[in-house]
Amino acid sequence: MEFISSKISYQRKLRKVRAASSSRMMGVLILAILVSAGTSFAVLKYLPDSKLFPSVAKQSSTITSSPAAEKPAKMTKPVSPEELKSATQTIEALNDALVKIAQDVEPSVVTIFTEKVLKVRRVTPFASPFFKDPFFNQFFGFGSPHQGKSPHQPQQPYEEQHQEAMGSGVIVSKDGYILTNNHVISDTDKIRVRILDGKTYKGKIVGADPQTDIAVVKIEADNLKPVVMGDSDTLRVGEIVLAVGSPMSPNLAHTVTQGIVSAKGRSNVGLAEYEDFIQTDATINPGNSGGALVNGRGELVGINTAIVTKSGGSMGIGFAVPVNMARLVMKSLIEKGEVIRSWLGVYAQDLNEDLAKAMGLSTQQGVLIANIQKQSPAEKAGLKAGDVITELNSERLIFAADLRNKVSISKPGSIVKLKILRDHKEKSISVKLERLPTEQGPSVMTGKTAEKTQELLGFKVANLTPNILQQFHIDSSVRGVAVVDLNQSSTAALAGVQEGDVIESVNRRKVQNVLDFVKATHNIKPGQTLLLKLYRQSGTMFLAFTLQSS
User: Fold this and answer.
1) Which residue, among 380, 377, 402, 379, has the nearest Cα to 390 in the 3D structure?
2) Measured between alpha carbons, how far is 191 from 204 in angstroms, rounded to an integer?
3) Strands 346-350 and 299-307: what pairing?
4) What are phi and psi of 447, to 5 degrees?
């Protein structure tokens, strides 16, 4: 009896051990499934206060003891050989299509190398105040204490440093016109373009438009393979797209990645003044800028421009300029050397729930006019502050950026029909658009004279565009030009000038834009003292420094 009793006891213990083991295995399985599904909540739920996932074991014990858990799992219906063959053929067909698209597009994408020559003052150990002592000046040949004036260390010489960068571009004509981003080729001294077969050509800037971040480069070449242009307006969210470019390194040129269109019409991103970006999760990294975004037919639908990142690499959020916008800018730059835009003359803003409710509107769709500019087309047509524009030429408007973009690409002198809401009543108004005023002149200083002036000053200036205001956190009520691209070795920098400073006056001459700044500085010479009135977040100040030639 003792033997039998011991045997029964042993079997019971064995069953308990097996049950506990089964419970633990079930718990581990549940954890693996949830983690693989990316559910961080499951990790938080099962990992606390556990030695070997005891809480999971409790969960699995409950499951195994329930009647539902004891039921055998339903068998999946077997896939017939015909169904498997059909599914395999579908996957193979998609794979072949993507391969053919990549092969067709790659020859139309180029790698762009840029070079900028920086003049930096050479730093020597003798720049220390310790070596300004008369004894050391005389010993090292810097001067003599018997020259009748205080000895001084001579100005340190400049040396050249070459700053190189890389981007991408898209061939749009057989004779060498290339579409890219403005930020890829702006502020450079040399441009080289390498095509798929490894040949390298000297690039020349045909024109650039910072307002859309689009530029056109030309190389002297024939029989190139231009990309097929698509229609970005017909692009749908969810469509498969391929991104082609040269990320990170020349050794990774013509990299192809695949994703979908995540969204359309992205604005207020802060990358350009006119924004209507395509958002994609196709992997885009530094160096992809200016490259191609193509659809499932191998047609160009966008120019890859920027990514959202916290690590410096792709996080699945990329932006591309729609090809329809880029094509209009490109055509204008090639034919006229500039981009001509139309003007309505309103300060518009998006409608939100609170505004719509306060104004008694039944919908948030539409663009609210906050103010009207004097002598503008809008004022002449009779538009008023408080009007809500719901349609332009029968196209619905949802965001203020939609209105701005559609007006800007319209031809000056053309008449647009607006549908508005005023005092809860719908009304139609026709407006004759005019060319966007250019009193501010260029957005940045350009030309050989400007280059000499910038070299003498040690910095560049730019108009206070929305992008500049956001970048440097400048109040929109401030007037002047922003200091950009400051040479840290310049006398201006040593005197205290900082990037993001707003220059309000030069030698007591008021400055409101780049054109004013050019007029105020075009006669400056080495040895002259420059007096600047600056606005900085900490307040207004005056700074003076003596100009020195390089």
Assistant:
1) 402
2) 7
3) unpaired
4) 100, 165
pLDDT in tens, 286-301: 889 999 999 999 999 9
For 175-219, the pLDDT digits (tens) are: 999 999 999 998 788 999 999 999 999 999 999 998 899 999 999
Q: Please name which of 490, 507, 508, 512 lies closest in space to residue 499, comparing C-alpha atoms.
A: 490
Over 257-294, what HEC string results? EEEEEEEEEECCCCCCCCCCEEEECCCCCCCCCCCEEE
Active-site residue among 209, 213, 276, 387? 213
Using CA atoms, how far apart are residues 178 and 171, in angstroms rounded to an integer?
4
CATH superfamily, region 342-435: PDZ domain (2.30.42.10)
Q: What is the CATH number of domain 81-144+152-337?
A: 2.40.10.120
Token pair 């999971």 is found at 56
pTM: predicted TM-score of the whole model, two decimal places: 0.61
**DSSP string spanning 140-180?**
TTS--TTSSS---PPPPPEEEEEEEEEEEEEE-STT-EEEE
Give the whole-angstrom CA distance, residue 62 versus residue 60: 5
Taking all residues of the chain, what is their mean pLDDT, rounded to a whole number?
Answer: 78
CATH number for domain 448-546, candidates 2.30.42.10, 3.30.930.10, 3.40.190.10, 3.20.20.110:
2.30.42.10
Q: How do the domains of the chain map onto residue ranges?
A: 17-69, 81-144+152-337, 342-435, 448-546
Per annotation, catalytic residue among 168, 183, 232, 332: 183
Q: Are 168 and 110 in contact (CB under 8 A)?
A: yes
pLDDT tens column, 436-487:
876 444 444 444 455 677 778 888 888 887 667 777 888 877 889 999 888 8
Topology agreement, domain 342-435 and domain 448-546: yes
289: annotated active-site residue: yes
183 assigned to active site:
yes
- DSSP per residue over 523-544, as a string? T--TT-EEEEEEEETTEEEEEE
For residues 294 and 316, what is the distance between their CA atoms, to the nearest angstrom?
17
* Annotation marks residue 485 as catalytic: no
Catalytically annotated residue among 108, 289, 342, 489? 289
